[in-house]
Amino acid sequence: MAERDLVAAAWRGYARTQFPETAWSVDGNVVRAVASGPRVDLITRESFKDFILSFDWRLPRGAGTAVLCRVGEDAGPAVQTGPAMQLLDDEHHQEGADALTSCGALYGVMAPWRDQRESANTYHSGRVVMSGTRIEYWIDDHQVVGCDLASEELKERIARSRFRDAPQFARLPEGHIVLQHRGTEAWFRALRIDQTS
After folding, report:
1. What is the pLDDT of residues 57-94, one digit of tens each?
2. pTM for the complete prediction?
3. What is the DSSP letter of 165?
4. Helix (H) or strand (E) holding 157
5. Cβ atoms 109, 81 nearer than 8 A
């Protein structure tokens, strides 16, 4: 099966049945958000409980995207349920000035442990590890976030965040993985999901 067909077999447009050809392109093992296309997120056809997601990512200057996990489509936009690993050009994007929305953050909830200032126009490795209620984000082999989504500390952080009125946010024991389309180009390559349970 060709690489394009493999991608289309694993991913589809959010709230759609087909791969969104006008929003995302596939070239070998590279999936690219098309800036001029509609802002349609990519979602895995399969849902996952515990997993390790590995990928490389690249952004142009001033751009951003995110990887969300354990997303439930029936609750509206992906951000209503899935905690997001923020991927951003901190240097040239307004959200880079706030630690809670900077590159590597658990978007809007927890700041990354490491600065990612030099991130535009080059590939970086990324990894999301989900095990039970524990989540970890890694960029370039450095852990940048690690927490227990069920802990009192996280519940308090969420209660103070923009997700306080989203009752299912970071609560689902299983769900889909989403690549966000924010209206700019974003490249993902070598996407690999290893189920661990």
Report:
1. 999 999 999 999 999 999 899 999 999 999 999 888 88
2. 0.96
3. T
4. helix 152-159
5. no
